[in-house]
Design goal:
InterPro entries: DNA_brk_join_enz (IPR011010), Integrase-like_cat_sf (IPR013762), Integrase_catalytic (IPR002104). The protein has helices spanning 11-25, 36-45, 59-62, 68-71, 75-83, 90-112, 126-151, 164-173, 177-189, 199-203, 229-263, 269-288, 322-344, 348-352, 391-413, 446-456, 470-484, 488-496, 501-508, 514-543, 559-575, 584-592, 633-653, 657-671, 675-682, 685-698; strands spanning 54-56, 72-74, 303-304, 307-308, 359-360, 368-373, 383-388, 600-603, 606-608, 627-629. The chain has 699 residues and is mainly alpha-helical. It starts with 10 loop residues before the first helix and ends with a helix.
C-alpha cells in the first residue's frame, strides 16, 4: 500500500516534487556538511526511508520490484563485507562511523546533484544510484579504511591515504571504479565534495616511474549475440508442447492439490500428494492415453552441489511428489516467459513490469497488453506502454495468470504466507526459499528462469558458449526482422521503443555474419521470384490458353525473352527424352537471374532483370527489355483504366481537348503494360470514340 506521504501524487510526480522540496530548503553544496539529523530528514523527504545508514529504493519510487540487496542498501554492512575480517578496534569503529556518514551524504548528492557524467546537469537513475553505493563506493571506502588501519592514522581525511598503486589496483580489478573516480572529481571541481580521491593525493608521489605494474589483460566486452537457428529449432517445439499440451495438465493437477491442502492437515500433505499423483497419472493414462506422459521434462533438483544440473537420467515428467510438481510449475512459467519475450522483444524489466491484469480491450483493433518501459524514459518510475500481441500470447498470459493464482492458493491453503497485493505481478516466485521470500513476490531475475528451462527441457543453456540471456531475444528478433522485413530498422525502432535509429542499427549489426545472410537470402528470393515467373509461363504453354495470356499474366518488355527461354528449355528436354520436372523451373530461374543477381524488385509490382552492377543505360518504361510487370498489377491496371475512361468520356462531353489528350496518353501508357489488356482496349468502342474525337477536334 502507498504510505500517507505519497498519497495525492503519482510515482513520477512524487519524485519530482520531493526533489524540488529538498532543493528549496537546502543548497546542493551544503550536503557535504550535513549532520545525521539533516541527512535523515532529506533522505525521508526524498522517499528513501527514515533509517540512518540504510538507503531504501522501494517500488513506490521505481515502479517495480528490484533485488532486495538494492532495495535496501545497508552502508555499514556493505563496507564491512568488502573489508573481510579485521580486528574491531576503537579506530575501526571510528572510521566506520565516519565512512557511514560520508556515504549517506554522497547518496544524497547522487540523488539530487548533477551526478551524470554524460551531461553537465543530468542525474543518475535511482536504481543505478543504489548499485553504485552498494558495489563501487562501498569498495572504495573499504580500501581506504584498510589502508588507514594498517597505517593507524587519524580519521581526519578518509581518502588522502590512498596511493597511486591502491587506486590503480582498484581500477584494474573493477573497471567501473574509474567512472566513480571521475564522478567524484566532477563534484570536487564544482565545489560539492571536498573529501575525495583528488589529484593531489596522486601528485604526492615523487617517483615518476613508480612501482612495476603488471599489464592487465584488456577486457573486451562482447555484445549479446542472437540465439542460433539450430538452438531455436531444437527448443521451440519443446516449449510449444509444454505450453499447449502439458501446461493445462499442470494447472488441473494443481487445482486438485489445492483441494487436498484445504481438506487435510499440513503435516500429512506431502504424503497425500505423493499418493494422489501416482493414482492421478495412472488414471489419466487409462483415460486419455500416454501421449501427455511421453514428454521429456526434467522435474528433479535443478542444482546439485551448487552447480546447475545437466541431463540427469532420473526425475522426469510426470511428477512424483510436491517438490517435482513445483519444478514443473517453474518450467511452465519459464516457457511462458520464453514465448512472451519472443513476441514482445522487451527488455527484462519491461517484461517483469507486465501486471497480472494486463489486457487492454479494444473494439477497433487487436488485443494489446500494457506494461512499463524504463531505460529511455525521463521518469524514474517509467512510462506506460502497450504491446500488440498475437492470439497465442493472449492464451499464454491467461495460462500464466492461472498458474500464479494457483501457486498463491496452494501457499495459503498450506499455511504458508503468500504475497497479497492490489495489483499482483504476473511473473512470481514459486517458493518461499531465501531471506524474507514469499510465494507470489515479484520474480527478480528472469535469466535464471530461462536457463533452468533449458536444463529441464534437455537443451544446452549456453548455446555457442554464451548463456541464455533476455537481451539475446531482442538481438534474435532484430536479426530475423533484418532478414525478412523491408525497412526493418524503422519497424524495429518502434518495436524496441528506441528514440534513435542508431540504437536499432547497433542491434541489427551485432551479428557480423548478418550481411552475408541477408545477401544469401536476397539471392534466393530473386531466384524464387524468377522461378515463379517461369512456372507460370510454362503452365500457360502446356494448357494452351488464350494467346494474349501466353506470359502467364505478366507484362513488360522482358517477357518475350522469358517465353523464348522456356520454349528452348522445353525443346531441349524433349530432345533428351526428359520431362519438365520439379527442379527444372528452379534451374532455369537460377540461370535467367544470373544466380540471383538479377530480377530485383525495384518498386512494388516492377521487376528489373538486370544485375545491380550492370553498366547499360537505364530506360525504365513498359517497353524496356529488362522490365517485368508483376501479374498482381493487372487488377490495379484494370481499375485505373476504368477511372481514366470515365474521365475521358466526361472531358469529351465538355469538349476539353487538352484534358482529353492527356487522359488518352495515360490510358495508352497504362494499357501497354500488359499485351492482352492493350489488345482488349484497342477493340473497345469507347476508347476508339475518344481517339476519334481527339483526331477530329484537332483537324
Amino acid at each position: 500500500m502507498r504510505s500517507v506521504k505519497y498519497q495525492g501524487f503519482s510515482d513520477n510526480e512524487f519524485i519530482g516534487h520531493s526533489k524540488a522540496k529538498v532543493l528549496s530548503e537546502y543548497s546542493v553544496d551544503k550536503i557535504q556538511y550535513f549532520d545525521k539529523a539533516t541527512v535523515i530528514k532529506c533522505q525521508e523527504a526524498l522517499g528513501h526511508g527514515s533509517v540512518y545508514g540504510i538507503w531504501r529504493t522501494g517500488p513506490e519510487l521505481t515502479g517495480r520490484n528490484i533485488t532486495p540487496s538494492l532495495e535496501a542498501v545497508n552502508f555499514r554492512y556493505e563496507i564491512q563485507s568488502k573489508m573481510g575480517a579485521y580486528l574491531q578496534t576503537p579506530l575501526f569503529f571510528e572510521l566506520l562511523d565516519q565512512s557511514e556518514l560520508w556515504l549517506a551524504r554522497y547518496a544524497l548528492l547522487l540523488r539530487i546533484g548533477p551526478s551524470s557524467l554524460r551531461f553537465v546537469s543530468g542525474c543518475l537513475d535511482i536504481t543505478t544510484i543504489s548499485k553504485t553505493l552498494r558495489d563501487h563506493i562501498a569498495r572504495l571506502i573499504a580500501t581506504a579504511i584498510k589502508c588507514k588501519l594498517v597505517a593507524e592514522t587519524s580519521p581526519i581525511s578518509l581518502f588522502l591515504i590512498l596511493t597511486t598503486d591502491d587506486v590503480q589496483k582498484l581500477k584494474n580489478n573493477h573497471r567501473s571504479i574509474s567512472a566513480e573516480l571521475a564522478r567524484m572529481k566532477k563534484f570536487h571541481e564544482m565545489g560539492l565534495l571536498s573529501d575525495i580521491f583528488c589529484d593531489a593525493s596522486v601528485e604526492t608521489e615523487f617517483n615518476p616511474r613508480g612501482d612495476k605494474v603488471e599489464p592487465q589483460k584488456e577486457r573486451v566486452r562482447e555484445p549479446w549475440l542472437p540465439l542460433p537457428d539450430w538452438f531455436m529449432s531444437e527448443i521451440g517445439p519443446k516449449v510449444l508442447r509444454l505450453v499447449k499440451t502439458i501446461g493445462p495438465k499442470i494447472i488441473d493437477l494443481g487445482n486438485e492439490l489445492v483441494q487436498i491442502a484445504k481438506d487435510s492437515d499440513a503435516s500429512l500433505f506431502p504424503t497425500l500428494v505423493q499418493k494422489f499423483t501416482a493414482n492421478y497419472f495412472c488414471e489419466f493414462k487409462e483415460r486419455e492415453g500416454a501421449d501427455v506422459l511421453d514428454y521429456s521434462l526434467y522435474v528433479g533438483p535443478a542444482r546439485i552441489n551448487g552447480k546447475m544440473t545437466e541431463y540427469l537420467s532420473w526425475g522426469y515428467w510426470p511428477p512424483k511428489d510436491f517438490v517435482q510438481f513445483k519444478a514443473a510449475c517453474a518450467a511452465l512459467q519459464g516457457a511462458h516467459l520464453w514465448l512472451v519475450m519472443l513476441a514482445v522483444a522487451g527488455r527484462s524489466q519491461e517484461i517483469l513490469s507486465i501486471p497480472r491484469k494486463c489486457f487492454v480491450e479494444s473494439s477497433e483493433g487487436p488485443l494489446t497488453i500494457n506494461g512499463k518501459t524504463y531505460k529511455l524514459s525521463k521518469f524514474f518510475a517509467g512510462e506506460n506502454r502497450d504491446w500488440v500481441v498475437p492470439p497465442l500470447i493472449i492464451d499464454v498470459l491467461k495460462q500464466q495468470t492461472e498458474l500464479a493464482d494457483l501457486c498463491e492458493s496452494l501457499a495459503d491453503q498450506r499455511g504458508r504466507e503468500s504475497s497479497h497485493r492490489d495489483n499482483p505481478p504476473l511473473w512470481i516466485r514459486l517458493d518461499a526459499r531465501g531471506k524474507g521470500g514469499r510465494v507470489g513476490d515479484q520474480l527478480i531475475d528472469l535469466n535464471n528462469a530461462l536457463m533452468y528451462l533449458c536444463v529441464r527441457l534437455g537443451v544446452t543453456s549456453k548455446p555457442e558458449g554464451v548463456r541464455v540471456h533476455s537481451h539475446r531475444f531482442r538481438k534474435t528478433i532484430a536479426r530475423l526482422a533484418a532478414l525478412a522485413i523491408t525497412e526493418s530498422p524503422r519497424v524495429l525502432m518502434q518495436l524496441f521503443g528506441h528514440k534513435d535509429v542508431g540504437m536499432t542499427l547497433s542491434y541489427i549489426l551485432t551479428d557480423k555474419t548478418l550481411q552475408a545472410e541477408i545477401s544469401q537470402i536476397s539471392r534466393e528470393m530473386r531466384i524464387m521470384r524468377c522461378r515463379d515467373i517461369v512456372e507460370r509461363v510454362h503452365d500457360n504453354l502446356t494448357t494452351e490458353r488464350s494467346p494474349f495470356e501466353k506470359y502467364g499474366g505478366y507484362g513488360g518488355g522482358a517477357m518475350p525473352g522469358v517465353l523464348s527461354a522456356v520454349k528452348a528449355r522445353e525443346s531441349l528436354l524433349l530432345q533428351s527424352d526428359k520431362t519438365w520436372g520439379v527442379n527444372t523451373a528452379y534451374e532455369l530461374g537460377s540461370l535467367l537471374s544470373l544466380n540471383g543477381e538479377g530480377y530485383r524488385l525495384i518498386r512494388p509490382g516492377v521487376i528489373c532483370t538486370k544485375p545491380l552492377k550492370d553498366f547499360m543505360p537505364c530506360v525504365c518504361g513498359s517497353d524496356c527489355v529488362n522490365r517485368i510487370e508483376d501479374r498482381t498489377l493487372r487488377r490495379d491496371t484494370a481499375k485505373v483504366l476504368e477511372v481514366l475512361m470515365g474521365d475521358g468520356i466526361r472531358a469529351r462531353s465538355e469538349n476539353n481537348l487538352l484534358l482529353l489528350e492527356c487522359i488518352v496518353g495515360q490510358i495508352s501508357t497504362e494499357a501497354s503494360r500488359f499485351p492482352d489488356i492493350e489488345k482488349t482496349l484497342l477493340d473497345d468502342p469507347d476508347y476508339c470514340a475518344l481517339k476519334l474525337a481527339l483526331e477530329g477536334g484537332y483537324e
